[in-house]
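no rush on this but wanted to send it before i forget. theres a chain ive been looking at and ive put its sequence and its fold in token form underneath. i want to understand how the tokens follow from the sequence so walk me through it. thanks a lot i owe you, the record is right below:
>
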Amino acid sequence: MSLKNHLAVAALLGCGAQFACADTIQLKDAAAVTGKVLAEKTDSLIVDVGYTVLQIPRGAVTGVTKSGAATAAAAPIPAAGQFYAADAKPAVARDVSSLVKQIGEAVVQVKTAGGLGSGFFLNEDGYLITNFHVIEGETEISVEVYQQKNGQLSRETYKQVKIIAINKFHDLALLHIEDKNAPKFQPVTLGSADVLNVGEGVFAIGSPLGLERTVTQGIVSTKTRQLEGNLYLQTSTQINPGNSGGPLFNLAGEVVGVTNMKITFGEGLGFAIPVELVKNFLDHRDAFAYSTDNPNNPFRYLEPPSRTKQKVEAK
């Protein structure tokens, strides 16, 4: 029996048996489990369904409703050994307002001496994506994070930021917050630009012109706009200076692109780097590792294996 079918049967058997005010765990593909959440771990939820206890992977959970009150969907947690959380299958669409409340903390403002841009966390350890042009040639970078504390939005600035990898050709940069007292951060889930349809709704969160946490909404105008030899997602979502490096979300709250430019003499002509290029950059980040010896070089060539090195030296 598949996980989905097993959980569906468990939900039917457990429903109403013991819990007058049961929790409801929403799963992918519109499935759900009704029971009592006993524990919430980083990689799973422990749920008592009345006759047994289930351990549900975080990756299968899209949201939790506790005792009749909806709560934010569980934060995406990368599986063991993974650098980021990703979902290739389209998730269930939701309204933008609830999505912004759920994933808004994952979007940050990236500041340098020369200007500012946006970015977003890939995992809870403080690794984030932004545009290369946001940090190009900069030696001092800070990241401003917005987190919910006691019902209020708290702003925190982190100044110990390290450049991990860069790809100037695709305008991507991977940063890491290294402040000793930094907490665990809320990450995003990477979706798929390939499964998007032209005309499908998308939205962006960023800091256009320094106006932090600005939300703009539009549609996918085309998926294959060619500019300077690269293919971009074109969107009617308003993109302005300061949005650069921020996420473009689908209506399931998954990142489908990284906003990086607009046509200045037109309206509703914004562009984003498809998330497939972001995944490739992250999967091969060692090849793009930033080198202080040559900071303008987007590639770092690793030392050859010892045997090969010995042969070269012998010649």
Notes: The radius of gyration is 22 Å. DSSP finds five helices and 21 strands in the chain.
